[in-house]
Amino acid sequence: MAGVKVVTDSAQDFDPAFLESLGVTVVPLTVHFGDESYRDGFDMRGRAFYEKLRTSPHHPRTSQPSPGTFQEVFERLTGDGSSVVAITLSAALSGTYQAAVLAKEALPDRQITVIDSKAASGGYGIMAILAAEMAKEGRAFEEIVARVRKMVDSLVTVFSVDTLDYLAKNGRIGKAAHFLGTILNMKPILSLDKEGYVTAVERVRGKGKVIPRMIEIAQERLPSGEKIIACVSHADAPEEARKLKEMVMSTFPVERLFETEIGSIIGTHTGPGTLAVCIVPASVIG
């Protein structure tokens, strides 16, 4: 039946099976260890990736889906007259957005909008989930596109990494470059700016101060007292993620809270031990 179909890519880090159950089609990126290749989220997820990261003699590299892969998905989903809202990993971090745009341009007679989330991991996983829910409610294509764009503009992402080595090694350090260099017992807190680039916020002394400061920074960037929808993500750090989740729940008026484990694409660039909280005001969905 014709309607609004939602597409995203696998670097949003939610289980593809979970998203498919909501009506979201997931297009995988690929992670490569030497000559071995795995579809992110489908062939390799979470802990299995971090185990291989620690033991493989090869540092992983990642690759985006081809325009042809997106075109095949768009053609299939619009074949019954449906429209498509595609929400991708930040264009500042990957060519995935551009690949989806090229696929859309190859289908000029179809109603397809490709949105650069300017986000990573669970930040745009939230967008895909909420868009799919709005589609199931029967909301119009134009409204869903407008509300996803509001999510892009209002999303707050704060994250910490155990080391900047992975971001530097993979060329994703962006505006956080001046944070390079090791300072004893100092932990970096970073964010994604309004264009979707990694940007430095500050360093804190001692691991125990990281989560409280992440929460404070998120508070500073969100409307006071407004209900929120949040996602806590982690890279093989379940205990720290539990603490972060508890602090989010005790600090904010949480309407919904999602959890996910950072997968092989984002994990290649951030490394194990990464923690992230991504938040949108609940009012954006109307």
From TrEMBL:
User: Superkingdom, according to UniProt?
Assistant: Bacteria
| Pfam families noted in UniProt | DegV
Report keywords, A-Z.
Lipid-binding
Annotated protein name in UniProt: DegV family protein
PANTHER family per record: DEGV DOMAIN-CONTAINING PROTEIN DR_1986-RELATED, FATTY ACID-BINDING PROTEIN TM_1468
One Gene Ontology term of the molecular function aspect = lipid binding
Q: Which organism is it from?
A: Candidatus Fermentithermobacillus carboniphilus
